[in-house]
Write a structure and sequence with these properties.
Fructosamine kinase, kinase activity, alpha+beta, 9 helices, about 20% strand, Aminoglycoside 3'-phosphotransferase, Chain: A, domain 2, 11 strands, transferase, two-stranded antiparallel sheet, five-stranded antiparallel beta sheet, single chain, Phosphorylase Kinase, domain 1
Length: about 290
């Protein structure tokens, strides 16, 4: 099945126009005037994982996510989000909404969205979601060690460098800060997955959703830059405090610890300067 066939199957409408968006995503105009996107999954389970993630994140209405029209093993069909411009009211609303979403919680650290597969993806890299009793054991087992092993096999880290990541994993209970309950995470909230839409609204797309530590999404927002980042973070911190769950002391300083995971993903996908950046993040997290 191609993208157009998937769109027509999942929406029940005929396609009248097609517009490539880049990568594996294509925009389609339907006969009733609606605009949708068909995105081919990166691998087995990718489309179901993203669809269930969008629905889990969007169900409370705290943040805007595209409506899922349907999915199969290969294709995900959602509404198209038309771009707008960054603005302070939208940034503040997004920060407050993200805080509320995180506080909705999750059944466990590492759990997939309800009905979602354990084998998921973050971008073009495979990602495993399995419940753990605490965040340090989950982060070590599913977010650090698998990618370090892959990078060693690719010749991107030597044995001594791999040992540095092992030392970090051993010290995670101390480096993680105060214990927190699992949060409902987007999981890949870098700038490219945060869309400033029309009507002063911020949308989240392309999730790698799971139960995790809420500081992870905040660290991802910072990793590659985000317009009005300080406004978003200040609104988030204020909303979390007002809800009786303020961010733990030192959360800004722990950003590097949570950025380690996406840096390891980029290491195995792109190489380049990312191995050095991942090592620097690991070293900085245990100083």
């Amino acid at each position: 099945m191609n993208g157009q066939a998937a769109v027509e199957r999942h929406t029940g409408e005929r396609v009248t126009a097609v517009s490539p968006l880049g990568g594996t995503a294509v925009a389609f105009t339907l006969g009733d005037g609606r605009e949708v996107v068909a995105k081919r999954g990166a691998g087995p389970g990718a489309a179901p994982a993203e669809a269930t993630g969008l629905r889990w994140l969007g169900a409370p209405g705290d943040v805007a996510v595209p409506l899922v029209h349907g999915y199969d093993e290969d294709w995900l069909v959602t509404d198209l989000v038309r771009p707008g411009s960054p603005g302070i009211p939208a940034a503040e609303a997004f920060g407050r909404g993200l805080a509320a979403l995180h506080l909705r919680g999750a059944p466990a650290f590492g759990c997939p969205p309800p009905g979602g597969p354990a084998g998921a993806w973050i971008g073009l890299a495979p990602m495993r979601n399995e419940p753990h009793g605490d965040w340090p054991s989950f982060y070590a087992a599913r977010r650090v060690r698998p990618y370090v092993r892959t990078a060693v096999g690719m010749g991107l880290f030597d044995g001594g460098q791999a040992a540095e990541f092992d030392r970090l994993c051993e010290r995670l209970p101390d480096a993680a800060g105060a214990d927190e309950p699992p949060a409902r995470l987007h999981g890949d909230a870098w700038n490219g997955n945060v869309l400033w839409g029309a009507g002063e609204r911020v949308w989240l797309i392309d999730p790698a959703a799971h139960g995790g530590h809420r500081e992870a999404d905040l660290a991802m927002l910072r990793l590659f830059g985000l317009p009005l980042l300080d406004v978003v973070l200040d609104a988030y911190a204020g909303a979390a405090a007002d809800a009786g769950s303020p961010l733990a002391d030192g959360w800004r300083e722990r950003a590097g610890l949570h950025q380690l995971y996406p840096l390891l993903v980029h290491t195995v996908l792109f190489g380049g300067s990312y191995p050095e950046r991942a090592l620097a993040a690991a070293r900085g997290a245990v100083r």
